[in-house]
Design goal:
This protein has 470 residues and is mainly alpha-helical. Helix content is 66%, strand content 1%. It contains 22 helices and 2 strands. Strands 1-2 form a two-stranded antiparallel sheet. The longest helix is centred in the C-terminal third of the chain and has 39 residues, at 353-391. The termini are far apart.
Length: 470
Amino acid sequence: MNHPEPRPPHPPRAAPPRPAPRRSGPRRDLLAAALAVLLVTAAVLIGRHLEDHDGSLHVNWPPLYAKWDPHLGPGTPAALAVAAAVVLHGPALAARLPWRALLAAAWAGSTAWIWSLALVDGWHRGVAERLTTKYEYLRVIDRFDDIPATLRDFTHHIVQVPGEYHWPAHTAGHPPAAPLTFVLLDRIGLGGGGWAGAFVITAGGTAVLAVLLTVRALADEATARRAAPFLVLAPAAVWTGASADGYFAAVTAWMTALLALAATRTTRHPALAATGAGLLFGLTCYLSYGLTLFALVAAGVVLIARTPRPLPYFVAGAAVVPLVFTAFGFDWWEAYRLLVDRYYQGAAGVRPYWYWVWANPACTVFVVGLATVAGLRRTLTAAPGAVRRWRTRDTTATDRLVGLVLAALLAVAAADLSGMSKAETERIWLPFALFLLPAAALLPRPSARAWLTAQAVLALAVNHLLFTGW
């Protein structure tokens, strides 16, 4: 019997081709940047109307504490050269340099960028005179001849009382470790505005190293390398040179870096690193009342690393500076209570909360730039997935970077809603802004040069068109 040959099976029907994925990510990045530009435009136009109408904002070029002053200066050629070098060669060098060489290059590039932008205003106006105005710390150097007695008496001069001496605005608005820094510089022979300006710029230039070490420890080296050019060419450099907040930013950045190294045990001496982080956190709280919110960033580091091991050492270190100042008679809590009274005696008493609560983020756009705004868009998009994977202990480097940026963003939101940061946040929030900048590492590599160009153009425009107050 002949059996018919079996028919070959029908080949499986080919699945219809999937449509090519839409390149929605870069488009959404551009949309986020465009919305940030609209926010800034609204803050400028509405702020200008309010200031012209009743003067309630107390800033000359809202939302920034600045005045319109188009100018060139001796730092202009250097600033253009640094910007061009980082845009053209920064991403490639960040990808291939040995790690230690990258750290050295990032520090040199950041320092050169800050110095060149400061010198756009000239040596005297841009550096030497910044910390000598009637609001600044150098005005009180002679009142610290007897440091223990001044600390005991510090709170008596915070609130303005008719007929009695009161501290200048910045001294009254900060704990005494801030003015003491410049008193000690004066004591070792580095007195005057020139040395003070050079100190804060030099200190501020090291912050890029601390942020890179933090990102590498918490995320990975590849992520830190992608972030490096954006940290170097940050518009924040405009206010780092030369305001004391650049120095504060360096202290908080190194505190965070040491804690990250301790939590991830990527240092030979994690206990020592955690203790050092605590010491710097204690100092932070006595440099600026508002920077106590860096506890949120520190908590974020510990949560990302999923370990409480550094906490006993961190807490022990953090107790040292408060104990010393308390022993000398300075009451932090009483000083803060009096500061709130002084705050509302001044411009804050008339500055409208409803404007600044959304104009402060517009100020932050000037500080972090549009590349960071686009990176923050990607951060918020990635956040739900990062949280889910954190719960299952299966996080990626991107997830851990997202966690760090979200912690800084939460601190900014708390500062904004508090009402104790009406205006001048372009300098006050510098420490938080440094940990928003790494969000730009999430941007596609092919677009890095375009976004770096946007960062450079913003910083150069601000520094050449405006004379910033700090």
